[in-house]
From TrEMBL, chain A:
Protein name per the record: Aldehyde oxidase
Annotated stretches, region: Disordered: 817-860
Gene3D superfamilies (UniProt xref): Aldehyde oxidase/xanthine dehydrogenase, a/b hammerhead, Aldehyde oxidase/xanthine dehydrogenase, molybdopterin binding domain
SUPFAM superfamilies in alphabetical order: CO dehydrogenase molybdoprotein N-domain-like, Molybdenum cofactor-binding domain
Molecular-function annotations in GO: iron ion binding; oxidoreductase activity
Domain Aldehyde oxidase/xanthine dehydrogenase a/b hammerhead: 32-138
Organism this protein belongs to: Thermogemmatispora tikiterensis
TM region positions: none
InterPro entries, per the entry: Ald_Oxase/Xan_DH_a/b (IPR000674), Ald_Oxase/Xan_DH_a/b_sf (IPR036856), Ald_Oxase/xanthine_DH-like (IPR016208), AldOxase/xan_DH_MoCoBD1 (IPR008274), AldOxase/xan_DH_MoCoBD2 (IPR046867), AldOxase/xan_DH_Mopterin-bd_sf (IPR037165)
Automatic annotation (TrEMBL), chain B:
Listed name of the protein: FAD-binding PCMH-type domain-containing protein
FAD-binding PCMH-type domain location: 2-219
GO molecular function: FAD binding; oxidoreductase activity
Oxidoreductase among keywords: yes
Keyword Oxidoreductase attributed: yes
InterPro entries reported in the protein's UniProt record: CO_DH_flav_C, CO_DH_flav_C_dom_sf, Diverse_Substr_Oxidored, FAD-bd_PCMH, FAD-bd_PCMH-like_sf, FAD-bd_PCMH_sub1, FAD-bd_PCMH_sub2, Mopterin_DH_FAD-bd
SMART domains: CO_deh_flav_C (SM01092)
Keyword annotations of the record: Oxidoreductase
SUPFAM superfamilies the UniProt entry points to: CO dehydrogenase flavoprotein C-terminal domain-like, FAD-binding/transporter-associated domain-like
Organism of derivation: Thermogemmatispora tikiterensis
């Protein structure tokens, strides 16, 4: 039997809570404004903090004079880079940030000084009184400029010009693959990148409680709108030199993150330091413009793709290159670089695959992870590229995809383990539900009708597929500890308290914990009190990124709940005089499966168990299995305990006179395994569709003279409710063997196919290709005019992605790897891989990894 | 959150008290109605008035009344929501109802007034930025600087007239009444505008826009098309207001075409209007008129999307507006 099928027995359905469309546990408090967000926190004697930011994209700091600011009445502290010199960064391999700039600023918005004052007006005045003298340096504002000017180094530490990271991999025999092809096509694509635009801007409050008897001098608490309190905890502790034991990081309600609140930030570190210096609480709330400057958004990526296929569309080889515009700092960028290449073989079975990726520094706000982290860009490129190949070959785009789908329970050419996979069902569902075949069959009649009515609107349908991880297989910093842990305490009054570091950023992770524990213990979710995202109260969960929380915290919660259930059932069995295996929990009772009238209430069972065993507290934890990836350096990005799959059909109307594109409907099928709550899953699918739609057609991350051109949500266009297309969510798939109750992710995957589906639909409607995202109406009109070449007009050439020409070899050593190189390894000698990390849910043991594990921590 | 600069707020109860306060406080004072344009601009330090004179209590600025045969009076303090929902305006001045409904978002239309929309500050994406941003790139002549960042060689400011209702009111040949301690004046609305991004209005600092008069509507049809990126929360990047009156034989008796968001003031397409008058509206003629009208549009790179695109869309939008009005009259389809 396959290793991943040997698993714990799942609780037998039908479920009482799981799978039900229940409201979120915090729904009422959120929609009535009662929920407390970071900026709602007001503490006695609280000060207002703020950052002075660089007005130049690239400059040397000659001097900073803070005297006038410090002397302003009402100002309690002013700090600059020298006060917080220790470098940090989310990845251990990219420690390139300081809380405040030292010597140099690298983008407009780079923080230079921080102030704490008694009120916001004094703060603003103080910031304007700080004098900074700069020597302006040349600014590099694009991938091409960064490559062309190795002499202008944004970071001294880079070895090769402004190249932050370059990687090169060959999986399988790429030459043989192309040699076997009947047809080879190459394309260039560009994805401009964008911001997350969470509705809540970043905010934090820091409180220092001095204690002269404490050798550290006191303890620090930070409330912050963050997705990753654990990583903030680590980095703040490091920069401030305060042991983690003396620092507490709490994420209150978070008003959306989408990846933009996953880094440790300057404002968080500065608020802590200002609080420590003044002995008073300090709040820093970012403006919307600052959110655009803090950024960590979707990387602009230029992509080159070359694919060889057989006449019938079977892929024989793929070569993919990505060039990422990283902005001024590392952030998650090394991981992003890997992610632009890692998941291609997880959607389509590639017999040979070569991936070369590079990330360059530019003088723009730093890029990082955004919903889909590094994969929407290649997804756009691959899905449009395959559509072109289908058209070139005269093969139905659905048939072409079907010939290449990845198979369930297989290994990819780059060593990734695939388990449950309902990709084909996703594809079949969107094709059937959208009326794809009928729509395409009626093409000629539809065009004739449009002409007869002299309508300028042409309709088209496009399709795309995708995959996404259910949690990164490796933590951000290399360690062998659990990725998530849950603790549950039972109260003799029948109350249940669940403690978990998981951070609800609106996706509903707190609710999911409640549903899972309620299902396991057989109680109603309302009975459960949840303590989450608090580094002092709750066991570590790595954070809300990489779509990991339901899968990992959910499994940890099941384990903790089962340990308690076992205790409850043992005392209930005794009292009811039944063997424990005849008992089940449900509706607040522990009852006999053969005669539900024979039952004990949950409260009675808790009291009996507490009398027997003492205080009722249990913990569970989860770490992904080991043997889910290859054994080459860099294999830590891409593996996941499971993958979600999605398919999307877009129906668009293109106005041929204006180039305006209206997305009339999106059909989105998503393989979520078992939905823990189908309402929340549908919310994630719809939210992904909405966001993908905005990225495809509207959001422009453009710069003018070194500045973000439009850093406001008036001018930076995200869709409104009036624009949002009709979305039909179709949940498919069967429960995953390793997911909690079979659940997989839904928060990011469904975004991925939306963008290429819209691009392919535009082509289907009007026969033009815009190989660049966003597909704005000016680009569409330009392409339409170029294609029509109307008399009397001198049309501009169609929009085209300019290739990047490298004069030298790819600046990274090629790593060749093939699955057959994996050799069974004898029992690992380094026993720390064998520690009891996840109890019965860990299907390893027959693991066969070589001793060459990824050298650096695998990452988000 | 961006902070408002400090200011004193005065809340007069009558129009004469308001004009007196404006006169007394001098140029350091500004009137404020809905505040939806002024307050964000103050947060960005485009205006830093020491005194705001609130207009919301003034009854003299309220009310919508009249009839299509004598004309309609609209108090300048009426909200955009009430203008867009008013049955008289919807039935007889549909272009105005459409334009008022096209402004920003429902929430802002509930607060923003028609007077405020007419007197909207001209816009430019070098100017409508925070103090930090403008400091970073270097200030422009419209506020704190000396050059135009859109056209650095230009002696003038090219900020754009971006009010949805302004081109419509020009096309409808509205008149406006301005009141100050020095007296009252009623002028055709065209005379309220200057072709100057820095000083776009002939309104003096002590004057209050009290009301708008729409002429009789009998025989007229009108419409407004707005080029925008999304369904709500956008300033126009092109506004096309068209009003037509047909003769009984189907010829165009009179035509008004006004373009918004293509210059620092609403632009009347005079040549195009002249070409239409007395003619039968054939598709060929409408296309020709649209092309003529579009010659008046000279967009610059200071608003959303590209200059070429905004220029290319002008004739399309003018023709579509004309088509709508001609088709509405003729029942089904163009000939």
């Amino acid at each position: 039997m396959d290793e991943w099928r040997r698993l714990q027995p799942r609780k037998a359905g039908p479920y009482k809570v799981v799978g039900k469309p229940l409201p979120k546990v915090d729904a009422y408090s959120t929609v009535t404004g009662r929920a407390i967000y970071a900026d709602d926190i007001i503490l006695p004697r609280m000060l207002y903090g703020g950052l002075l930011r660089s007005p130049h994209p690239h400059a040397r700091i000659i001097s900073i004079n803070t005297r006038r600011a410090r002397e302003l009445p009402g100002v309690l502290a002013v700090i600059t880079g020298e006060d917080l010199p220790r470098k940090y960064g989310i990845l251990p391999s990219s420690q390139d940030e300081t809380a405040l700039a030292i010597d140099k600023v690298r983008y407009v918005g780079d923080p230079v000084a921080a102030v704490a004052a008694v009120d916001p007006d004094t703060l603003e005045q103080a910031l304007s009184l700080i004098e900074v003298e700069y020597e302006v340096l040349p600014a590099l504002m694009s991938i091409e400029e960064a490559l062309a000017r190795p002499d202008v180094k944004i970071h001294e530490e880079t070895r090769n010009g402004n190249i932050h990271k370059a990687v090169s991999y060959e999986f399988g025999d790429i030459e043989a693959g192309f040699a076997a092809a009947d047809y080879v096509r190459e394309d260039w694509f560009y994805y401009e990148g964008n911001n997350h635009v969470p509705i809540e801007t970043h905010a934090c409050v820091a409180r220092w409680e001095p204690d002269p008897h404490n050798p550290i001098g006191g303890k620090l608490t930070l409330w912050s709108s963050t997705q990753t309190p654990h990583y903030v905890h680590r980095e703040v502790s490091k920069v401030l030199g305060i042991p983690p034991s003396h620092l507490r990081v709490i994420a209150p309600h978070v008003g959306g993150g989408f990846g933009g609140k996953s880094d440790p930030f300057s404002h968080e570190i500065c608020a802590c330091e200002l609080a420590r210096r003044t002995g008073r609480p300090v709040k820093i709330t970012c403006t919307r413009e600052e959110v655009f400057l803090i950024h960590r958004g979707r990387h602009p990526v230029k992509m080159w793709i070359k694919t060889g296929v057989k006449r019938d569309g079977t892929i024989t080889a793929m070569h993919f290159r990505s060039f990422l515009d990283g902005g001024a700092y590392g952030s998650y960028g090394v991981a992003t670089t890997y992610y632009t290449g890692a998941l291609q073989p997880v959607t389509y079975a590639l017999p040979a695959y070569k991936f070369e990726g590079m990330r360059v520094f530019t003088n723009k706000p730093p890029c990082g992870p955004k919903r889909g982290h590094g994969t929407p860009q290649p997804r756009f490129a691959v899905e449009v590229h395959l559509d072109k190949i289908a058209a070139d070959l005269g093969v139905d785009p659905i048939e072409l995809r079907k010939r290449n789908l990845v198979r369930p329970y297989s290994r990819t050419i780059n060593g990734l383990r695939i388990t449950s996979c309902a990709l084909e069902e996703c594809l079949d569902q969107v094709v059937a539900r959208s009326g794809w075949r009928e729509f395409h069959a009626a093409r000629l009649a539809r065009e004739a009708e449009a002409t007869r009515q002299s309508s300028p609107v042409r309709r088209g349908m496009g399709l795309a597929l995708s995959t996404y991880i259910c949690g990164a297989g490796k933590p951000i910093y290399w360690n062998d500890m659990p990725h998530s842990a849950v603790q549950i305490r039972l109260d003799r009054g029948g109350g249940v308290t669940v403690y978990c570091g998981a951070t609800d950023i609106g996706q509903g992770s707190t609710s999911v914990l409640a549903y899972i524990v309620a299902e396991e213990l057989g109680i109603e979710p309302e009975r459960i009190h949840l303590e989450t995202a608090d580094t002092t109260l709750t066991p570590v969960d790595l954070g809300s990124y990489s779509s990991r929380v339901t899968f990992m915290a959910g499994n940890a919660a099941i384990q903790a709940a089962r340990r308690l259930k076992e205790l409850l059932h043992s005392v209930a069995a005794e009292r009811l005089r039944l063997p424990p295996d005849r008992l089940e929990s449900g509706d607040g009772f522990i009852y006999c499966v053969d005669d539900p009238q024979v039952a004990l209430s949950f409260e009675q069972a808790v009291q009996l168990a507490e009398a027997r065993y003492g205080a009722l507290v249990a913990a569970g934890s989860y770490a992904p299995p080991e043997d889910i990836h290859g054994d080459f350096k860099g294999a830590g990005v891409g593996p996941s305990p499971a993958y979600s799959y999605s398919a999307c059909v877009a129906l668009v109307g293109v106005d041929i006179e204006t180039g305006e594109v209206k997305v009339e409907k999106l059909w989105l099928a998503h393989d979520v395994g078992q939905a823990i709550n189908p309402l929340l899953v549908a919310g994630q699918v719809e939210g992904s569709a909405y966001m993908g739609y905005g990225e495809a057609l509207m959001e422009q991350q453009i710069f003018r003279k070194g500045r973000h051109k439009i850093p406001s949500i008036l001018d930076y266009k995200i869709p409104t409710t009036l624009d949002t297309p009709e979305i039909e969510t179709i949940l498919v798939g069967r429960p995953d063997d390793e997911g909690p109750f079979g659940g997989k992710e839904a928060g990011q995957g469904p975004l991925l196919p939306v963008i290429p589906a819209i691009a392919n639909a535009i082509y289907n409607a009007v026969g033009i290709r815009i190989d660049e995202v966003p597909i704005t109406p000016d680009k569409v009109l330009r392409a339409l005019k170029a294609a029509r070449s109307e008399p009397g007009e001198r049309p501009l050439p169609p929009p085209r992605v300019t290739p990047i020409v490298l004069n030298e070899l790819w600046p990274a050593r090629l790593i060749r790897w093939s699955p057959e190189q994996r050799e069974p390894r004898p029992d690992p000698t380094n026993g720390h891989h064998q520690h009891p990390r996840q109890g019965e849910s860990a299907p390893h043991g027959a693991a066969s990894t070589s001793s060459q594990l990824p050298q650096k921590g695998g990452t988000a | 959150m961006l902070r408002l600069p400090p200011f004193r707020y005065l809340a007069p109860r009558t129009l004469s008290e308001a004009t007196r306060l404006l006169a007394e406080e001098g140029p350091q004072a500004m009137p404020v109605a809905g505040g939806t344009d002024l307050l964000p601009n103050m947060k960005r330090r485009q205006f830093t008035p020491a005194v705001l004179v609130g207009l919301r209590r003034l009854r003299e600025l309220k009310g919508i009344g009249g009839s299509p045969d004598v004309g309609v009076r609209i108090g300048a303090g009426e909200t955009l929501t009430s203008v867009s929902n008013h049955p008289l305006i919807r039935a007889h001045y549909p272009a105005l109802a459409l334009a008022a409904a096209a402004v920003s978002t429902p929430q802002l239309r509930n607060a923003g007034t028609i007077g405020g929309n007419i007197l909207l500050d001209t816009r430019c994406n070098y100017y409508n930025q925070t103090e930090f941003w403008r400091h970073s790139i270097g200030y422009c002549m419209k506020r704190d600087g000396s050059i135009c960042l859109v056209a650095p060689g230009s002696p003038r400011c090219w900020a754009i007239s971006s009010a949805d209702t302004a081109p419509v009111l020009v096309a409808l040949q509205a008149r406006v009444r301005l009141v100050s301690v020095r007296g009252e004046r009623e002028i055709p609305i065209q005379e309220l505008f200057y072709d100057d991004g820095m000083r776009p209005y002939t309104r003096e600092a002590d004057e209050i826009l009290q009301e708008i008069w729409l002429p009789p509507a009998l025989g007229w049809r009108s419409t407004y098309l707005k080029l925008r990126r999304r369904g709500s929360f956008d300033f126009p990047i092109l506004g096309v207001a068209v009003a037509l009156r047909r003769e009984p034989d189907g010829r165009i008796g009179d035509a008004r075409i006004t373009l918004g968001a293509v210059a620092s003031h609403p632009v009347e397409a005079e040549e195009a209007m002249a070409r239409l008058r007395g003619q039968q509206p054939t598709p060929t003629l409408l296309q020709e008129v649209a092309t003529l009208a579009a010659k008046r549009a000279r967009p610059l790179d200071n608003a959303d999307l590209t200059i070429t695109y905004r220029k290319q869309l002008t004739p399309v939008y003018v023709r579509r507006a004309l088509d709508l009005l001609v088709e509405a009259e003729q029942g089904s389809g163009a000939e």
